[in-house]
Each structure stands twice: as C-alpha cells, then as structure tokens.
Amino acid sequence: MTDVLYTGPIPAERGGELAMGGGRSETSALSGTGGGRDMTTTQNSQRPNACCFCWCCCCSCSCLTVRNEEERRRRSRRKRISQDTKMETILNCEACTKPSADEMRLWSQSFDKLMKNPAGRNIFREFLRTEYSEENMLFWLACEDLKQEINKSCVEEKARSIYEDYISILSPKEVSLDARVREVINKKMQEPSPHTFEDAQLQIYTLMHRDSYPRFLSSTIYKSLVHGGSRTSSES
Hints:
Blueprint: H1 12-31, H2 35-46, H3 55-86, H4 101-106, H5 111-115, H6 118-130, H7 134-147, H8 152-167, H9 179-188, H10 198-217, H11 220-235
Helix pairs in contact: 1-2, 6-7, 7-8, 7-10
C-alpha cells in the first residue's frame, strides 16, 4: 500500500505539542547517541543576542561596545602613566631660573612665548601631567633634542628610542597622530635623520596649543603662580 502524506491543518492539540515540546522530543531522541547536546549547543550559538533585535540595534550595540572598550583602555593607560610619572623627580625637568611675574604674564599672550621659555615649559608640563598627557611635551622635547644631534649613529639611536617611546602603539606613552603622519614616519625611519619626526612634532605642538593651552591659562596652577609672583613683586 502506498503511504499518503497528510498536508492538511494540524489539530490544535498536536500543533501545541509540536510547538512547545517538539524540540524537547527531538533532543531526547538524540540524547542516547550524544547528538542532542551538540544540537542544543549549536542552536544556542546561532540564537541572536536578545538586545540586538534588528540590524540597526545590532550595529549600535557593536559600536557602543567598541567605544566602551576604547574608553576602558584609555583609562587603564592613564592610570599607568600617572603611576609612572609620580615616580619621576624634579631632576627630569629642564634647568631654568625662577620666572618673574612679567615673564609669567607673557605666557598668556601666546603659546609660542610659553614654549620658548624653559620655566614656562616646566610649568606647562606639570599641568599636562594632571591631565595625563605629559607625553606630548616629552615627545616635543625629544624631537627638539634630536634636531641638535649631528652624529649619525646617535641620530639613529635617538630616533629609534623616540619611535619606541612615543610612536609605537605598544607604548604606554604613545602620542595621538593621524595615519598620514605615521606613514611618513615609517618611511623616514628607514634612514633616520634629525628631522624624521618634524610632521609629528608639529601635529603634537598644534594639539597642545589648541587643546591644552586654553585650559592651562584657566588652571589653578597658572593662576596661583601669577598671583604669587605679582604679590612678591609688590612687596619688594
């Protein structure tokens, strides 16, 4: 006798059984050979994330996860830098004389005047340390030092050291540079010269000027220095 395949509507009781218990019956039937566990695992792994109920939501969740991870990495990096810089002593600062009240007031006129003054660079560096961005000043100073070098072997050694300390993505003191500048540096590092990091130095200088310098002028560090210097001058 030929079997006839039923294609009509499923009775309510049978339909509910298939909807609610069909998966369980299939798993139970395969559990004897160990297949049920594998199938259950496969089904669970293919099940979409509960929060990503649509493509847009899934994209948003992924972007949010990336941003959160990036923020966590930055905080961890800032913590390491803070711990490292706290171990540094005043000997790491540039040698300079005590600035006068007039000199300190000149620092507010332009960023160039601040950066051309050794005492100004030291004070600004201390401010950058409070913002966990001291590496910007350290990198700028290292580039200035490299420009003064004329010995080829010393140039190569210092250039390699600057790259490892401030350019490498593995360094905790990595400075923020765009892809174009990084590509230029990688090409120049094949034959290092005193001007290997000129583009990067200018970019970091501009970053400090536009981003950190305005906050420095409004900071307690700068205001207290100017106020203290003015009071000392009036007393004398």
